[in-house]
């Protein structure tokens, strides 16, 4: 769904760019904005997976720690 929306926005920006007779406007910023959003999403995914990985490792440690008998 995200890809479909991105393609639709890019098409609208391109059609607006082609229909202009004067100088370009905000439609020039559509492609850089899409690139920036993809980069931010990619970076956020890396951060999220590392955060989840650390959380899972901590949970496993706590579970293993509580399962041992310390008597």
Largest sheet report:
none
Q: What gross morphology would you assign?
A: elongated
Structural class: mainly alpha
Taking all residues together, what is the mean pLDDT? 77
Oligomer: single chain
Number of helices: 2
In what range is the share of β-strand residues?
under 5%
Residue stretches low in confidence (pLDDT < 50, at least 5 long) are: none
Give a count of the beta strands, DSSP E runs of length 2 or more. 0
Commentary on this structure:
The chain has helices at 2-19, 30-67. By secondary structure, it is mainly α. The protein has a domain at 27-66. The chain is elongated, with a radius of gyration of 23 Å.
SSE order and pairing:
Layout: H1 2-19, H2 30-67
Give the key terms.
71 residues; 0% strand; mainly alpha
Brief summary of the model shown:
Helix content is 79%, strand content 0%. By secondary structure, the protein is mainly α.
